[in-house]
Design goal:
The protein contains 22 helices and 10 strands. With about 725 residues, it is an alpha+beta fold.
C-alpha cells in the first residue's frame, strides 16, 4: 500500500509538471492506460490535406493586394513632376522683372503690367523670340525650348460691387471741394454675388504704332529703342468667330460666369441668379495666404498667340486701366503647358490679390499631372519600336489594380452577407469598407479622366482660339484624385496591424491603442477647448501686428505649430512684450507641460497594463508546458516557415545532430508528435482540475485509502 501510494504520487506529480510521457504514466500507475497508435496504421492512412485558417488566407490576399498597389503606384515613379513644377516656378515666379523684385515682390498696379510684359509674355512666347538655347523660338514653345504652351494665356480681373460708404466718409470733403461718391467703397470679395458684372471691357485699338523699349535679355547686351510697327491682326479662323458665350471662343474682356458655387447647391439655397455658367470658366482658386476663394467669375481677356500682338494688347489694356481701379480685387493669370519629354501636363495660375485695406498679396498655384499618360499608353502613342508589352505595361498594371479592387470588394460583400449581424462590430471591417470604397471611387474618377482625355490632340485648332479650360479642369480633378489616393494608402498599410494581433509581442501596440483611446479622446477634447480659447485671444491681441495671427485660422494653425516645438516668441515680444506674459507662457504651460504630459501618462499606463498581461500569459503557458501557438494563424505561419526552411531549403534545425539518418529523423518526428499530444492532453486535464499541485496531498490520501481497501479485499478473498 505504501509503495503503491508513493509510486502513484510520483506519477501524478510528474503528470502535473508535464515531464512524463503518457507511456511512462501507463507503466507507473494502473488508473491510466495509454497505447500509442500503431505506426503501420498511421502509415496506411492517406495524408490529409491541411486546412488553412481564414485569417491566414486573408493575410496572403492582403499581401497580394499591397504588392499590386506598390507595383502600380510606386514602381517606376520619379521626381520628374517636381522638377517640371519647379521649372515653371523658376520661369514665371522667381525671375526678376525689376532689380531685386520678382513676382512675390509686386506691390502696386504698375508692377503687375511690368511683370505681365517682361516675364509672362517674355517666357510664355520665348524671350526675345529665342529660346534659352539661342535658337529661334517656335510659336508654341516656352523660353526653355522643351515645354509647349497649350491654348492662350488668360488674364482675368475680378472686381467687387460697389457699396455705400460709411456716413462719416460721405461727409468728408476733398481738398478740391468735392465729396466722396457713396458708391465708391468696395468690400471684400467673399462670395460670387459680390462680383461686379456690369464692367464694360475697353475696346482696344492695335493699329497705332508706338515707340517702345524692350527690356534687356540674354540676346541683347543693353536695351535698344526700337519702333514697334503694328503687324496686321490675323483674321480668326471659322471656329474662332463664334460668339464668346459658352463656346470657348477668344475672350476680349467679356464677363465670364462660373455659375453658382457648386452650381446645384446654390439652387437649393435660393440664389435666383444661379445659372450653369460658361463652359470656359475656370475652377475656384483659394489663396493659401489670405484664405479667400475666387471663383471663375470676372472679366477675361485671352492674349493673342502671337508675341508681338500680345505685347500690344497688354500695353493697350494697361492704358485703359484694365488691371487697376478701386474695385479690382484680383488679377489672375492662367495658362496651360505640356512637356512631351516628360509627358506631363501643367497649369500655372498666378493671382495678385488686392485687398480692401490696400494691401497687394501675390499668390500662385502650379498644377502638374500626367493626365494624358493613360490614354497615350493604351493607344501606343509615342512608343513606336518598343515591345508591345512595354508600351502598355503601366496602363495595364493600373487597370489590373482596379480589377483587383473590384474583386476584393466583392469578397467583402460576400463576408458581409454571411456575417451580417456581427460584421460591423469589428473596427477592422469598418477600415476595410472605407479603404475599398475609396479605391473604387478613385478607379471611377481615373477612368472618367481617361474618357475625357481619350483621343485629345494638343494640335487642335480650338486651342489657338481660347483658354484650355477643359484641360485645366481635368488637371485639377486628377490632382484631387491623387490626393484622395494618397490618404487612402495610409488606410491600406494600417490594415497590417490587423494581423499583428495574432503575434503576442506585436499585439501590444494595437492593444495599447485600444485601451487608451477613450482617455485620449477626453484629453483631446480638453486640449481643443484650450487651443480654441487661446487662438481667439492671440488673434485679438496680435492679429493686427503679426502675420502668424492675422486671422483666426492662422492663429489656430500657429498654436498647433507651437505645440510641436516651433515658436516665434521674439516677434510676439517685439509686438507687445506685456501681453506675452498673459498669453504665450500660460498656453505653453497648460498645453505643452500639462495636457501633453497627461497624454504620455495615459499611454504609458495602458502599455504597462498590456505588457504585464502579456508577461503573465507567457508565464502561465511556460508553467503549463505549452510551447505551440494557440492562434491558428501563427500555426499556419510556423508550418509554412518549417516547410520553406527545413524541407525546401534543407536547412537543419539548431538542435539536430550531425550524422543522423532519415530513420532517426522519422523517430524524432514521432517523438515530437507524441510529446505534442501529451501536452494537449495535459492542458485539457489541467483546465478541468484547478490547482492540481495544491491538492496533491488529498489525491495521495485518496490513492492510499484505495490501495488499503484493495489490499484488505484481496486478503479476505485469499482467506
Amino acid at each position: 500500500g505504501g509503495s503503491g501510494g508513493k509510486s502513484a504520487g510520483m506519477a501524478l506529480n510528474a503528470f502535473a509538471g508535464g515531464r512524463a510521457s503518457m507511456a511512462g504514466l501507463a507503466s507507473k500507475t494502473r488508473q491510466v492506460s495509454y497505447e500509442p497508435p500503431a505506426p503501420a496504421a498511421a502509415a496506411a492512412a492517406p495524408p490529409r490535406r491541411r486546412k488553412w485558417s481564414p485569417e491566414f488566407l486573408d493575410f496572403w490576399l492582403y499581401a497580394l493586394f499591397v504588392a499590386i498597389l506598390a507595383a502600380t503606384n510606386i514602381a517606376g515613379t520619379n521626381a520628374t513632376p517636381y522638377y517640371f513644377r519647379r521649372n515653371l516656378e523658376d520661369q514665371f515666379l522667381v525671375n526678376e522683372f525689376e532689380p531685386n523684385c520678382a513676382y512675390d515682390g509686386i506691390a502696386c498696379f504698375a508692377q503687375i503690367q511690368v511683370w505681365l510684359r517682361d516675364v509672362v509674355a517674355g517666357y510664355a512666347y520665348g524671350a526675345g523670340g529665342r529660346t534659352w538655347h539661342g535658337k529661334p523660338a517656335k510659336p508654341r514653345l516656352l523660353a526653355d525650348g522643351v515645354t509647349m504652351r497649350v491654348g492662350l494665356v488668360r488674364v482675368r480681373v475680378v472686381r467687387a460691387r460697389g457699396g455705400a460708404c460709411p456716413t462719416m466718409a460721405k461727409e468728408l470733403t476733398l481738398p478740391d471741394g468735392t465729396k466722396l461718391d457713396p458708391d465708391n467703397c468696395y468690400p471684400a470679395l467673399d462670395a460670387t454675388w459680390r462680383v461686379k458684372r456690369n464692367y464694360e471691357a475697353p475696346a482696344l485699338d492695335l493699329t497705332v504704332a508706338e515707340v517702345a523699349t524692350e527690356a534687356p535679355t540674354f540676346a541683347t547686351d543693353a536695351p535698344t529703342p526700337a519702333v514697334v510697327t503694328p503687324e496686321p491682326t490675323r483674321a480668326p479662323s471659322a471656329s474662332c468667330r463664334a460668339a464668346a458665350t459658352k463656346t470657348g471662343a477668344k475672350r476680349r474682356g467679356e464677363f465670364v460666369s462660373s455659375g453658382c458655387p457648386g452650381k446645384y447647391l446654390g439652387k437649393y439655397l435660393g440664389n435666383l441668379a444661379c445659372d450653369d455658367g460658361d463652359s470656359d470658366a475656370e475652377l475656384p482658386y483659394t489663396s493659401a495666404t489670405t484664405g479667400i476663394t475666387y471663383y471663375g467669375d470676372g472679366n477675361a481677356f485671352d492674349l493673342s498667340p502671337d508675341r508681338a500682338v500680345a505685347l500690344r494688347e497688354l500695353r493697350a489694356l494697361h492704358a485703359a486701366n484694365f488691371f487697376a481701379g478701386r474695385s479690382v480685387r484680383a488679377v489672375i493669370v492662367s495658362f496651360c503647358v505640356y512637356n512631351p519629354h516628360a509627358d506631363i501636363f501643367g497649369l500655372v495660375r498666378a493671382n495678385v490679390e488686392v485687398l480692401p485695406g490696400g494691401g497687394i498679396v501675390p499668390t500662385y498655384q502650379v498644377v502638374a499631372s500626367p493626365i494624358l499618360t493613360l490614354d497615350r499608353e493604351l493607344r501606343g502613342d509615342g512608343l513606336a519600336g518598343e515591345p508591345w508589352g512595354a508600351q502598355r505595361r503601366g496602363a495595364y498594371g493600373e487597370l489590373l489594380f482596379y480589377v483587383v479592387c473590384v474583386l476584393y470588394a466583392l469578397r467583402e460583400v460576400r463576408q458581409f452577407v454571411k456575417h451580417r449581424e456581427v460584421y460591423f462590430d469589428s473596427f477592422w471591417n469598418w477600415l476595410e469598407v472605407i479603404n475599398l470604397s475609396t479605391y473604387l471611387l478613385v478607379a471611377l474618377l481615373r477612368i472618367t479622366v481617361w474618357l475625357w482625355t481619350a483621343g485629345r490632340s494638343l494640335d487642335d485648332i480650338d486651342l489657338n482660339c481660347g483658354f484650355a479650360a477643359d484641360l485645366a479642369k481635368i488637371a485639377h480633378v486628377a490632382v484631387r484624385v491623387d490626393a484622395l489616393n494618397a490618404v487612402n494608402m495610409i488606410f491600406s498599410f494600417l490594415k497590417v496591424f490587423k494581423y499583428f494581433r495574432h503575434v503576442p509581442s506585436l499585439a501590444q501596440f494595437t492593444n495599447t491603442c485600444a485601451r487608451s483611446v477613450s482617455d485620449c479622446l477626453v484629453l483631446l477634447g480638453i486640449m481643443f477647448v484650450g487651443i480654441l480659447g487661446f487662438a481667439i485671444a492671440f488673434f485679438v491681441g496680435y492679429g493686427a501686428s503679426t502675420d502668424a495671427y492675422k486671422d483666426f485660422h492662422s492663429s489656430f494653425i500657429t498654436l498647433l505649430d507651437v505645440l510641436m516645438g516651433a515658436s516665434d516668441i521674439g516677434g510676439l515680444v517685439a509686438s507687445d512684450h506685456v501681453l506675452v506674459a498673459f498669453l504665450f507662457f500660460p498656453f505653453v504651460f497648460m498645453n505643452s507641460f500639462i495636457v501633453l504630459s497627461m497624454f504620455l501618462a495615459v499611454i504609458g499606463i495602458a502599455f504597462d497594463e498590456v505588457r504585464d498581461e502579456h508577461l503573465e500569459d507567457m508565464k502561465e503557458r511556460r508553467d503549463e508546458g505549452i510551447k505551440e501557438a494557440d492562434s491558428p494563424f501563427l500555426q499556419d505561419m510556423h508550418y509554412c516557415y518549417d516547410v520553406l526552411v527545413h524541407k525546401i531549403l534543407r536547412i537543419p534545425r539548431v538542435d539536430a545532430k550531425v550524422g543522423v539518418g532519415d530513420d532517426d529523423d522519422e523517430e524524432d518526428d514521432d517523438d515530437a508528435a507524441l510529446r505534442a499530444r501529451c501536452r494537449r492532453l495535459h492542458a485539457e486535464f489541467a483546465a478541468k482540475v484547478e490547482h492540481l499541485r495544491d491538492h496533491q496531498d488529498l489525491l495521495l490520501e485518496a490513492v492510499r485509502a484505495r490501495s488499503e481497501t484493495e489490499s484488505r479485499r484481496l486478503s479476505q478473498g485469499g482467506d
